[in-house]
Amino acid sequence: MNTDISIKIFNLTKSFGNITAVNNLNLGIKKGELFGLVGPDGAGKTTIMRLLTATMMPSSGEAWVAGNSILSEGEKIKEKIGYMSQKFGLYEDLTVMENIIFYADLYEVPQKERPQRIERLLGFSNLTPFKDRLAGRLSGGMKQKLGLACALIHTPEVLFLDEPTNGVDPVSRRDFWKILYDLLKEGVTIFVSTAYLDEAERCTRICLMHKGKILMDDNPAAIKRSLGMPMVEMWSDDARNAIEIIKGIDGVQSVSLYGNKLHVAISRSELVDDIIINLSRSGIVIRGHREILPSIEDIFISQVEGQ
Amino acid sequence: MKFIRVKAIAKKELIQIWRDPLSLAMAFLMPVMLLFIFGYAITLDVNNLKTVVYDLDKSSLSRELVDSFRASGNFEVVGNIHEQKEIDSYLDSGKAFVVISIPKDFSEKLKTGRDTSLQVIVDGSDSNTATIALGYISAITDMYSQRIKGVRITPLIDPRVRVWYNPELKSRNFIIPGLIAVIMAVITALLTSLTIAREWERGTMEQLISTPVKVPELILGKLIPYFFIGFIDVIFSVLLAVFLFEVPLRGSPLLLMLLSSIFLFGGLSLGILISIVAKSQLVASQISMIATFLPAFLLSGFMYSISNMPKALQIFTLAIPSRYFVTMLKGIFLKGSTLKLLLFETMLLSAFGLFVFAVANKKFRKKVI
Asked: A72 and A178 share a domain?
């Protein structure tokens, strides 16, 4: 196997009864990538995380993480990875320090390396003043940073983060991503899932996922260019009612609503005039429009609607 | 197996128990309270049976008879009645358990050396107590008639019965040691039945199974703190038995602690196994109550002698660990039994513990589903 590859996924499938959460997935992730798995709730993100962290067995297919098979070498994988589950997985009735030492013990971090590592982890997560506070009394953002600190105590090769910034305030989110960039410089492969599409743009590579399948897989800039058709932003006081009318027009790929703004993907630029005329017939006034570079969210919506 | 990981889990578990008042109370107060309540509530001795007297004779002889009932300590005269119909109301309402009815010509017949009769009515709705009361009644009247006749009839066979191990036949002496076994059976399973299920419910298990921790390390680490709690509970219970309930401890306290340890290991492992299978705290605690309390109470030989049970049920009791612990505790307390005498129980109890521990290890998978 290529030594540059950190995670290799081959025909991976996981079904729960009639529902296929992960459908015949194939992926290769290089060492040092900040890989973002993006998709709505129920897309199968958590299932992939669990399969790759060897905490769930696939229905079929195979994957290798840090050179070990998820089918036969799950316990070896667990020594090399750090994982932060979606739900806060640390002990709320233990202090910050007690949680960190507990995980240091489980990963057999040598005693003499501990003071230095713990100091560093507490430092970059700004948890030093709270080290004796019960984890249950931390704010949402601090809890996530503590989770990250515990997942990093043994300096893993691959870090799996399942929606780490879910329910975290914007400032803490920015701090959190800063920490991830620092880790990336140290050569750690980071596999992160998120439902926040704006956040996904911070990744070096994005995989759009929907209903267990990958819709797109590229770097953020390439994904934004991939629409292959113009995207127009339109303002209207009656934007909500405009959606259905616009959707019915030939050549419109997708429409999405942002307050009183509409993002419309169209097959050719001239279609804008058709749309405005059509809307005015229904008494809806467009107060202005301009061509824009689509966001990841626009791409995602156009992809899902195009299905 | 890595000691550092076992220690980490044990330490974490201990901190959690220590910071949760509810688990602390369950661990330390519940067994003592149960022993206290059941120890006083369950008694098979028949003392101070409420008795009313319907004395139509009203002579010194009839009063003497009533006095001998009273003096035995088994009967407490709570009233005298003067009409036949009052008997019903006393027995119906439960105000009396025994009615002694002395006929009008009682003293006259006795004085003239003729046979006379005495009517004694006993409430048979509690047949156990009634049977015991009947024994007392015939003993008291026999002694009384011999005294009146002024002769001692020597029967052909004079059985000299000696009751070993519990010469005073105090039911408390055999109930309390058995009760300790029943309570510990329930407590041990209940304590550990929550530990694994709680981690699944709170979401901490998903994090834990993503680490390299091994299953035996996890299970052993979780057992250790509860083992010490169980050990302290046993010491408390034995102290209560000896000093509060005055049950004689004739055997070696050291042997008692050793055998209790074996029992604790099995009981705690059973709780863990239930917790692994149930995955929910509510279900786990209910299963462990049913799986331990009923067999320990009914089939362990604590209340009902195993030799009186149908053959099939007798065989079934071999699979009930509290059966061995009841025998051990009764033996050590009352008979001063040694390890040699309890070898069969010790071996089966050890086998039970190891088996359940092994099954728990096998059942636990480090997977979400």
From this structure: yes
State the pLDDT at residue A3.
67
A97 pLDDT more than 90: yes
| Neighboring chain A residues of B15 at a CB cutoff of 8 Å | 93-94, 98
Chain A CB contacts of B6 below 8 Å: none
Smallest Cα distance from B31 to chain A, Å = 25
| Backbone angle region of A187, left / alpha / beta, with phi > 0 → left and psi within -120 to 50 → alpha | left
Does B155 reside within a domain?
no
Query: pLDDT for A182-220, tens place per residue?
Result: 889 988 999 999 888 888 888 999 998 888 888 888 888
**Which of B95, B118, B149 marks a domain boundary?**
B149
Handedness of CA B236, B237, B240, B241 (dihedral sign): negative
CB contact under 8 A, A78 and B210: yes
Report how far Cα B234 is from the mean position of its chain's Cα atoms: 15
The encoded tokens of residue B348 equal 């089966």
**Is-contact A90 A133, C-beta < 8 A?**
no
How many folded domains does chain A comprise?
A: 2
Looking at CA atoms only, how far is residue A194 from chain B in angstroms? Answer: 18
Render B77-144 in DSSP notation, one character per residue.
EEEE--STTHHHHHHHHTS-SEEEEE-TTHHHHHHTT-----EEEE-TTSHHHHHHHHHHHHHHHHHH
Q: Does B19 touch chain A (CB under 8 A)?
A: yes
Q: Is A186 on the interface with B (CB under 8 A)?
A: no
Based on the fold, state whether residues B62 and B17 are members of the same structural domain.
no
Phi and psi at A144, nearest 5°, equal -65, -35
The pLDDT value recorded for residue A179 is: 87
Q: Where are the beta strands (DSSP E) in chain A?
A: 5-16, 19-30, 34-38, 60-65, 68-69, 81-84, 158-162, 189-194, 205-210, 213-218, 231-236, 252-258, 261-266, 286-292
pLDDT at position A307 is 64
> Mutate which of B206, B217, B222, B369 to disrupt the A interface (most A C-beta within 10 Å)?
B206
> What whole-number distance in Å separates Cα of residue A6 and Cα of residue B256?
57
Can you list the residues of chain B whose pLDDT is less than 70?
44, 151-156, 158-159, 163, 167-169
The answer to whether B198 faces chain A, any CB pair under 8 Å, is: no
Residue A94 C-alpha, separation from nearest chain B C-alpha, in angstroms = 7
Q: How many CB pairs under 8 A join A and B?
A: 78
Give residue B98's domain range: 49-149
